[in-house]
Design goal:
Layout (H helix, E strand, L loop, with lengths): L13 H20 L3 E2 L5 E3 H8 L4 H5 L2 E4 L5 E4 L4 H10 L2 H4 L3 E10 L11 E10 L5 H16 L6 E6 L3 H16 L7 H9 L10 H6 L12 H16 L5 E2 L11 E8 L8 E7 L3 H4 L7 E7 H8 L12 E5 L2 H16 L4 E3 L6 H10 L4 E5 L1 H6 L1 E6 L5 E5 L3 H8 L2
Parallel strand pairs: 1-5, 7-8, 12-13, 12-14
Antiparallel strand pairs: 2-4, 3-4, 5-6, 6-11, 7-9, 9-10, 10-11, 14-15, 15-16
Helix pairs in contact: 1-6, 1-12, 6-10
The structure holds one RNA strand.
Length: 418
Amino acid sequence: MQYKAVRGFKDILPHQVGTWNRAESEAKRIFGLFGFQEIRVPVIEKAELFARGIGQDTDIVSKEMYTFQDRKGTYVAMRPEATASVLRAYIEHKLYEVYPVQKLFTIGPMFRYERPQKGRSRQFHQINAEIIGDPGPKSDSELIFMVMWFFSCLGLRDLILNINSLGCPRCRGPFRAELKDYLKGYFAHLCPDCQRRMETNPLRVFDCKVETCHEAVKDAPSMPDFLCDNCTDHFETLTLYLKGLDIDFVVNPHLMRGLDYYTRTTFEVQTQELGAQNAIVGGGRYDGLIKELGGPDNPAIGFAIGTERIVELSGEHPTQGEKGPDIFLAPLGKEAEDKSFIWLQELRKGGLSCEMEYRSLGLKAQMRRADRLKARKVLIVGEDELTKGKGILRDMVSKEQRELPLDHVVDELIRLRE
RNA sequence: GUGAGUGUAGCUCAGUUGGCAGAGCACUGGGUUGUGGCCUCAGUGGUCGCGGGUUCAAGUCCCGUCACUCACCCCA
């Protein structure tokens, strides 16, 4: 075996494709019910778009992007997420002029240079949805309701929805400052990771598994106490709507997002069955981002589903190759083979799925092959049949055999299908 | 970037104290001149991840390296 796929890049093999198609077509169906339109955007953008959108200091931008110069020297990057691209398209084509609220979804591969592990690879796939142009909280709860309904339709169970509010720039700033001050007092008790986190992302300290860090943040300031009236109202209305929609959730004040652009509502759905990478969807509101990217000052909210992760939870759904061919042609001898080969293609033109061996095999081998393929019927044509002008049509389930005139055998078989 | 574990047939895996490279499944053929599944017999298929070392002899022991897996970090 000479060549192997590049590290972190995986093949999706034929037996897995059915599950993938099911997840993606179900997403299209359900999102359609909610009035979402599909949009397809490039997998490469100017590197700067992601730096501006996601945040220069995030892990994603600072160390995980596939960035390179094209032949003209322009810095481009393979997208690590889809939202920045969707918003770029929204702004570039002035979709906000078409209708004030745009509900868009997109499906496709993302790229991040990370160490692969369970539930994480360098090329991975997401199903993204965004509601652009509404400040919420109706759009917040509708989006969350939609994704939970989608999971339910896929048969996913035992999911935990976490929600939180990160506040707006007005209330988040003071909170971060206060938290940093508090953590400084415990600096010596923090693990090296958390000493670093204190600067980069202080809220992460809450999630640290080290015991002393856990102790240190016991009495730390908490985000909900800092939310301004508008943000508090927004979040409380959201929880009311979710309760009204019968959606179970956990308010998790420590729920952070790794991308800088989030404001107010954030949410994440977790499962117990995937190991360490247990989030199957993450999302939230990003009210300042469109303006940041040069568009109008429109609010928006969106989510990203990890397709690999929901596919793994779905189990196998072999929708392709599930039922075998309608007819298997089993010719014996060169003349019969040549005739069957023509019939084979004409039967397919007539809408019948059918198969025939490329090789010349004995009848027994061909029957075994037909059986393996789960063919419903086999047309046996040997020298005797050619001279008689009548083939043998065997029903593989009932084992009944009957003669079939070969003059118009293709039309006859198509007619027999009813 | 850090740590641990695993690399033997297409797949799942045995391989003892260092002594001829194995099984099941899959594939091909026979048992049945031209009739599938079950059964039975046989066959095809191997750079034992790669490179070096120890040894009369290495899949097995030692060193290095690569890959995969899981975890940390972070995230979908």
